[in-house]
Structure formats: structure tokens, C-alpha cells
Write a structure and sequence with these properties.
The complex is a heterodimer.
Chain A lengths: L4 E8 L4 E5 L2 E7 L1 H10 L5 E5 L11 H9 L5 E4 L5 H9 L4 E4 L1 H5 L2 H10 L4 E9 L5 E3 L9 H10 L4 E6 L11 H10 L4 E4 L5 H10 L4 E4 L1 H5 L4 H10 L7
Parallel strand pairs in A: 1-4, 1-11, 4-5, 5-6, 6-7, 7-9, 9-10, 10-11
Antiparallel strand pairs in A: 2-3, 7-8
Helix pairs in contact in A: 1-2, 8-10
Chain B lengths: L2 E4 L6 H10 L4 E4 L2 H5 L3 E4 L5 H10 L2 H11 L4 E4 L1 H4 L4 E2 L5 E2 L6 E5 L9 E8 L13 E6 L1 E5 L5 E7 L1 E9 L2 E4 L7 H14 L2
Parallel strand pairs in B: 1-2, 1-3, 3-4, 4-13
Antiparallel strand pairs in B: 5-6, 7-10, 8-9, 8-11, 11-12, 12-13
Chain lengths: 249, 202
């Protein structure tokens, strides 16, 4: 039976790990290589590393740092930040990335999803889908590119273009540690048939119990709970085991 | 006596090298037919589409080298992920294309069930007692694929994995070993599995 995945997320600003709240107020939380080493020793299911400023600052992700992070990992690693060409993807795969995560380019030029999935296979192309609840309670894609598109339209489009996975983050819940956006997740997962990593809001173990009880979510990504509490990925797994979810321990 | 990790522009060579280095196996990443012919072991990793993978192998004349060394000279061979699929007779991703034909069979899209595809994440192997993979029965390994290898001769199946139905997770026939999952990404058991491959073929 396929196990649920608990995935620590490292967000990087170009020189340090940071953790945002609702995608702003980044707080410095340490060194990426050290963090990767710890997560590897804890045997986590997977790791995600994102340079959250690369596209905005119009620069490439630092391949040397990515290489050092991956060097620590004997589990799968997804990497994102400033990826906009086949060459960028190849550069990351060559140094050991298992999945490449697209965001800005997926919004600006959706056919790039198809191009990269055809070239490298759907399984290594993940899309970061950042969602904000607007004043009419509609779920929209959060971006500063002036693109106005609903979550449901975009996720469906991304799937049809051949993406292998969606990293679904609630901007409203990001870093708040107040629980996951259950209605958003339910709306998103029933709309598509590719794996979805649910992100944003986990702050205590009961939030994960709630997420896995009230949605058909199969994987979760988290950062704050690991940075700011004593809980580890294993604590979350033990919690999910109690409610009958298949976990790898 | 060195292990050649075949570099044909299809992904994860660095991760495989890292695992081999951890095990103390002398290794080289190469697309040079001479280096591969002189190696003791051949490792064919890879992610991506079948047709692209074969095209790249042919471009560097490596398809013939692999067939000579693995099928005729019986050099220990392990294919990983796309590297397992490419040893089939035929592939279908994104269109039909001939494979290396080390193991007879066809690589086709996983059946659409109510489960999500790709089959992505940690899943346990089911390996019969007499299989090379028996030590890893019920252990979790990391899978990430949308196509699967439908093997003609069931005797060459080393392990299966269940995702709605049973799929081939590993192959073993004489000197030819292959895994649909990624041992190099499967933490402790993955490293142990690679270790077992090198020890068995030492």
C-alpha cells in the first residue's frame, strides 16, 4: 500500500533558510545543508527545497548550494526557484534532483509544462500552486504577475499539460500554524487526479489528524512546525498511524 | 574493477554515484563505449520518457554496447527506473519505440483506476522467498512512475508492488537486475539492496 508522505519544506532566500507568514515577513531559520543533514538522518520521506526569491530577483538558483543540500539526502528531493528552461531542469536533474518544481514559468508560459513533461517525463515535473482566498471567498492563484486565474482552472490546466504533481500551498494559512485550509484542499483534490502535496497551516499534531480525517489528502508539506516546535516528521506519522493511515516508519 | 554508471542525458546519475561511493564501490559516470566495455558492472539509471532515452542511447552508440556486454558477455547489469524500462522489447512513451530487449516485454501506461498517477511515493515490495529481492519483502521503497513493465516471462519478475493492482517492481534474470523503484533514494533498504547486488556479483 502506498504510504502517506510527510515532506519538510526548506524555503531559501538566496543565502539563508527563511520562514514566511502569509508569504511575507521572512524570518531567518538557519542553514540549508545542516537542515538537510538532519532530515536525512531522521529518514524523512522526501524533501522540498525552494528558492522563493530567484524568479523575483531574476536570478538562477545557486547550483552549488543545491548540490550541497542534495549531497546530504538519500531520499528524494524536489527543487524549485527560477526554473524557466529545459537547460535549467537538466542542470538540476544532473546534480541529483528528483523533481523540479515550476511556478512563475508555469503561469507565464503554461506550454513550458508540456514541453518539460514531454522531455523529462511527467513524474519529475511538479508545479507549485499558491492559492489565496479572495474577498468573495473564491480560491485564486496568488502571483505578482497580474495573472487572474482560479485555483480550479489552473490546477486542471496544469494536469492536462502533463505535470506529475502539485504542491498546493494556502497563502492565507502559510506560517500561521493555525491549521490547514480544509475547504481549499477538498476543492482542489477532487478536481484533479495527480498527486497533491498539501501545504500551509500545520502547527500542532491535531492539525494533521484533522487534515487526514477530513480530506482525501495523501501527502503533506510543512516547515513551521519543524522550525518552531519540538515536533518531528515522525511525531506526525505516529499521529496519522493512530487514525489508520499507512505510514512508513 | 569498476562500476560504469551510464550517462546518456537522462537524469539522476549523481544520486546513483553518491550511493555507490557510500558503499565503497569504485565507479565512473561515462558515455564512452570503451569505458563501459572495460567496466565490471553496468548501471543504467535514468528518468524521463522511453523514446527519448532510447534515442539518446543510440546517439552515443550505447545501445549496442549494453546488449553486447549484458546479454552476450553476461556482465552484471542493473537498470533503475527508466533504466529498467529500457531493457524491455518495446516502449510506448510517448509513442511506440523499440527497447534494448534484454528482457522480453512491453512498457505501457499504468491502468487508470481511482488512484492518482503517477504512482508516487513509498510502497512495499512483495518478493517471493526464492527471489534475489526476498530480503526486502514488505519493505518500503521509493517509486515514481506512470508506465510499467509488462514482462512476458513471469519467471523474470523479482518483486511486485501493489497500487490498485500488482505491477512489476523488480526484475532478475541471470546477470540482469532491474528496479522500477529508486534504491539510491530509498534510504537504508535501498543502500542495502545495492550492496547486495555488488556482493552477489563480486
Amino acid at each position: 500500500m502506498l504510504k502517506v508522505r510527510i515532506i519538510p519544506i526548506l524555503t531559501f532566500n538566496g543565502w539563508s533558510l527563511v520562514k514566511t507568514k502569509q508569504f511575507s515577513n521572512p524570518r531567518i531559520v538557519g542553514n540549508p545543508v545542516q537542515a538537510a543533514r538532519i532530515y536525512n538522518s531522521r529518514g524523512v520521506d522526501e524533501l522540498i527545497f525552494l528558492d522563493i526569491l530567484a524568479s523575483k530577483q531574476k536570478r538562477k538558483i545557486n547550483l552549488n548550494i543545491v548540490k550541497d543540500v542534495i549531497k546530504e539526502c538519500f531520499m528524494p528531493v524536489g527543487i524549485g526557484g527560477g526554473v524557466k528552461s529545459i537547460q535549467d531542469i537538466n542542470d538540476l536533474l544532473r546534480i541529483g534532483a528528483d523533481k523540479v518544481i515550476l511556478k512563475t514559468e508555469a503561469l507565464l508560459n503554461p506550454t513550458f509544462i508540456k514541453e518539460s513533461a514531454n522531455f523529462f517525463g511527467s513524474q519529475c515535473i511538479s508545479i507549485a500552486v499558491d492559492v489565496i482566498r479572495n474577498e468573495n471567498n473564491k480560491y485564486m492563484i496568488y502571483n505578482d504577475l497580474g495573472i487572474d486565474i482560479t485555483m480550479d482552472t489552473f490546477t486542471k490546466q496544469v494536469q492536462d499539460l502533463g505535470a506529475g504533481e502539485i504542491i498546493l500551498t494556502s497563502v492565507n494559512a502559510d506560517g500561521m500554524m493555525g491549521g490547514f485550509d480544509i475547504p481549499m484542499i477538498n476543492e482542489a483534490v477532487k478536481n484533479i487526479n495527480i498527486p497533491v502535496v498539501c501545504v500551509g497551516g500545520g502547527g500542532e499534531l491535531s492539525h494533521y489528524r484533522n487534515l487526514f480525517t477530513n480530506t482525501i489528502c495523501e501527502s503533506v508539506g510543512s516547515a513551521s512546525i519543524f522550525h518552531f516546535t519540538q515536533h518531528t516528521p515522525l511525531d506526525i506519522k505516529n499521529t496519522l498511524k493512530e487514525i489508520g493511515k499507512p505510514v512508513r516508519v | 574493477m569498476i562500476a560504469a554508471i551510464i550517462d546518456y542525458g537522462m537524469g539522476n546519475v549523481a544520486s546513483v554515484q553518491k550511493a555507490l561511493t557510500l558503499l565503497g564501490i569504485e565507479n565512473v559516470i561515462s558515455n564512452d563505449p570503451k569505458v563501459i566495455r572495460n567496466s565490471k558492472y553496468i548501471i543504467l539509471p535514468g528518468v524521463g520518457s522511453f523514446a527519448q532515452g532510447m534515442e539518446n542511447l543510440k546517439e552515443s552508440l550505447l545501445d549496442k554496447v549494453i546488449v553486447d556486454e549484458a546479454l552476450i558477455k553476461k556482465k552484471p547489469f542493473i537498470g533503475i527506473c527508466l533504466g529498467m524500462q529500457l531493457i524491455a522489447t518495446t516502449g510506448t512513451e510517448p509513442h511506440e519505440a523499440p527497447g534494448l530487449n534484454l528482457i522480453r516485454g512491453k512498457v505501457i501506461k499504468m491502468e487508470s483506476t481511482n488512484l492518482r498517477t503517477p504512482h508516487l511515493g513509498w510502497n512495499e515490495l512483495n518478493a517471493p522467498d526464492d527471489s534475489f529481492f526476498a530480503d526486502f519483502n514488505k519493505k518500503d521503497f521509493y517509486f515514481i512512475h506512470s508506465y510499467h513493465f509488462q514482462v512476458d516471462d513471469e519467471k523474470s519478475i523479482g518483486a511486485t508492488v501493489n497500487y490498485g493492482k500488482d505491477y512489476v517492481a523488480a526484475i532478475q534474470k541471470e546477470n540482469i537486475f532491474a528496479t522500477q523503484f529508486h534504491p539510491e533514494k530509498s534510504q537504508k533498504y535501498g543502500i542495502e539492496l545495492l550492496d547486495k547486488f555488488f556482493k552477489k556479483n563480486a
